Amino acid sequence: MRSKFYTRSFLILAVILLASSFYYLPFYVSKPGMAKELEPIIEVENGYEEQGSFMLTTVRMGRANIYAYVAAKFSKYQELYPIEEIRAENETDEEYNVRQLHLMATSKLAAIETAYKKAGIPIDYHYNGVYVLNVLPDMPAHGKLQAGDRIFKVDGKEFMSSDEFISTVSQKQDGNEITLTYERQDKIKETSITLKKLKETGKPGVGITLVDDKEIEVEPAVNINSEEIGGPSAGLMFSLEIYNQLIKADLTKGYKIAGTGTINSEGTVGRIGGIEQKIVAADKAGAEIFLAPNEEGAADSNYKAAVETARDIKTEMKIVPVDTFDDAVEYLRNLD
C-alpha cells in the first residue's frame, strides 16, 4: 500500500511539474546566446578569403515559465522584461516573430548597401510591394490579412512602395471597398476589404502596419543565410564580413572579431539590446575584439555597458567603441 501511495504521489507531482512548465508568465527572459562565425553564413561570389573571422553575437530570448523566471532572478546575466517592453500593443507571438525576422531582412539589405557603397560598387533596387508587419484588432484587415503577407496590387493595379500604397488607399472614401492582391506562403490570393477611417491620420485605411518589400541587385552577387536568427543587431557585423570579402586587404588580420549593432544604409551604427549577454557569449567563443555601439559617447551607451561587463567577467577581450561603419573599418585597418 505504501509503495502505491509513493508511486501515485510521484506521478501527481510529475504531472504538476510538467504542466507548470507550459504555464507562461507575462515576462520574457533573455540569456547569453552564441557567437557565430559569419564566413560560412555570408558568401560573396568569388569573394576574398580571410585569415581571422567576424562573428555575430546573439541572445536567447523567450517567454518565461515559472522555472525560467526563478533561474533568471538568481542569474547575473539573465534578464527579465515585462511582455509590453518586448511586444507591441496587441501584437501576437506570431506577429512578433514575423517582425523580428523582417528586422533581420532589413538589416541584411542595409549591410549590403553599406558594404557595396564603401567598396565603390553600384547597387540596383527592385521593389516588390509592401510587407505586412501587424494587423490591428477591430480593423477591416483583421481576419483577412496576416503578418508576413506581401501585398503588391490594389484593385488590380501594381504599386512600387509603401508610400504609393498609402497614397492610393487614402485617396478613397471611408466605407469604400478595395481589393488587395497578396502573396502568402508562395500562393497568390485576393481579398476585399471595406475601408475605415484611421484614428491616427483621419484618413481611410485597412488597419495594418507595413514596410517596403524590396530587393537589392548587386554584382558580384551576395548570399546571406541567417536561417531563423531574428532582429536587426547583426547589421554591423554583416556589413564588415561582406566588405571584407569584396576587398583584397584582409581586415581580420587573423583575429577573432565579434560585435553587435544595427546598421542603416548610411553606415550609422545603432544601439541594441542585451549587450551584457553578448559580451558573455563572445568571451565564451574566444573572441579577441568586440565592436560595440558607442552612441556618440552617451552616458548609458552600449559601449560603456560592454566595458563594465568585460571587467566583471575578467575577459581579456578588447572592447572597441564605434559610431559608424567607417569607424570600425579604420580601427581594423590600423591593427597590427
TrEMBL record:
The UniProt entry annotates the active site at 233, 278
- PROSITE patterns cross-referenced by the UniProt entry: LON_PROTEOLYTIC (PS51786), PDZ (PS50106)
Which InterPro entries does the entry link to?
Lon_proteolytic, Lon_Prtase, PDZ, PDZ_sf, Ribosomal_Su5_D2-typ_SF, Ribsml_uS5_D2-typ_fold_subgr
Q: Where is the signal peptide?
A: none
The record's annotation in Gene3D superfamilies points to:
3.30.230.10
**What's its catalytic activity?**
Hydrolysis of proteins in presence of ATP
Pfam families hit by this protein: Lon_C, PDZ_2
Listed A to Z, the keywords are:
Hydrolase, Protease, Serine protease
- Tell me the domain of life: Bacteria
Question: The Lon proteolytic domain covers which part of the protein?
Answer: 225-335
Broadest EC class assigned to this enzyme: hydrolase
One GO BP? protein catabolic process
Q: One GO molecular function term?
A: ATP-dependent peptidase activity
- Read off the SMART domains from this record: PDZ
Q: Which residues form the PDZ domain?
A: 120-186
EC number of this enzyme: 3.4.21.53
PANTHER family from the xrefs? Answer: ATP DEPENDENT LON PROTEASE FAMILY MEMBER
* Similarity comment: family membership: Belongs to the peptidase S16 family.
Identification of the protein by name: endopeptidase La
The source organism is: Sporosarcina globispora
The root-end lineage is: Bacteria, Bacillati, Bacillota, Bacilli, Bacillales
